[in-house]
Write a structure and sequence with these properties.
The chain has 247 residues and is of the alpha+beta class. The protein has 6 helices and 13 strands.
Amino acid sequence: MFFRFSAPPPAPTVRLEQATLVLRVIRSDRARRYLLRLDEDGAARLVIPRRGSQAEAMRFLERSRSWLERRYRQWLTRQTARAPWKDGSILLFRGEPVTLHVSNDLFGAVITFADQTLRAVALAADYRAEIQAHLRALAEQELPMRTHQLAREYGIEIRRVLIRAQKTRWGSCSATGTISLNWRLIHAPPFVQDYLIIHELMHRRQMNHSARYWSLVATAFPRWQEAEAWLKKTRIEMLGSGTSVAA
């Protein structure tokens, strides 16, 4: 007697710009609306309410594609952020992906990437702490200098420049003239760094985000929309909130 085994049908997928995701389509008697979310393993989950239809679910998925694109980029960034930084890891530095190279000598580990070299006193499986300390030191050296330079160029008075580790902001400007910048800007291209600095400097002339303020920004930095697009696309470990979208 011969038994014939047929392969299971392929799982449905949804195609994004950067990847093709597994699509889990689930009917729920408890759901009141169509719901789309990105699971922890990177698969998309599409929930159909009890009286919903497959066709309408697919239309909802299509309408939510831009949301899913953003969530996938955030998920991918988070996965990268969790991975150890070691020999062969890819790091974003001044807007360019660079490869970490780690070698050993009698004094510990030598870490190089792009034009940077630093040392770690002990061998480790993850050099994230040492590399981030180095990057923050670079930011503390370079960003205040560039901020004062641009302030002079635009005739804007500032009190001081602080380099911080904000969780949700790239920078801020106080009413007293203190500019605060996130050290993670060292990951961004120079033109994006300049945009964020000018963004805060223009608050010295207009302490809001009114049309007049954005007119000042556009005049001072015509590439502001390009810089904003880069920031929204890249995120750099500063992830937005929200895990699902419904209709």
